């Protein structure tokens, strides 16, 4: 009776831990990570504190002017990402066979 209980507890632990990792990576998180990677060079010395599941980026920088520059870059990049998400993808190109020649 003890072995099945241990198996169930083990499976539950694995599913909770594995599911948490999948749940953390949202599209907003991925976009925020992309924004950070693009903009971190705008303010050398910036420290990434956290990226939330909702895409909120928390960072620190000792120079307020550099932090403002980084914030501006993050905002501009977010605007470009929004256009990319809203724009419909074009249909794939399909090569049609040529009609038979008479």
Structural topology:
Blueprint: H1 2-24, H2 27-39, E1 47-51, E2 57-60, H3 64-86
Antiparallel strand pairs: 1-2
Helix pairs in contact: 2-3
Largest sheet: 2 strands, antiparallel
**What overall geometry do the principal axes of the alpha carbons give?**
flat
Enumerate the spans where pLDDT stays under 50 for 5 or more consecutive residues: none
- Based on secondary structure, the structural category is mainly alpha
Fold and architecture overview:
This protein is mainly alpha-helical and 102 residues long. The chain has a domain of 37 residues. Helix content is 58%, strand content 9%. The protein has three helices and two strands; from the N terminus they run ααββα. The chain has a two-stranded antiparallel sheet with strand order 1-2. Strand 1 and strand 2 form a beta hairpin. The model has no long low-confidence stretch (mean pLDDT 77).
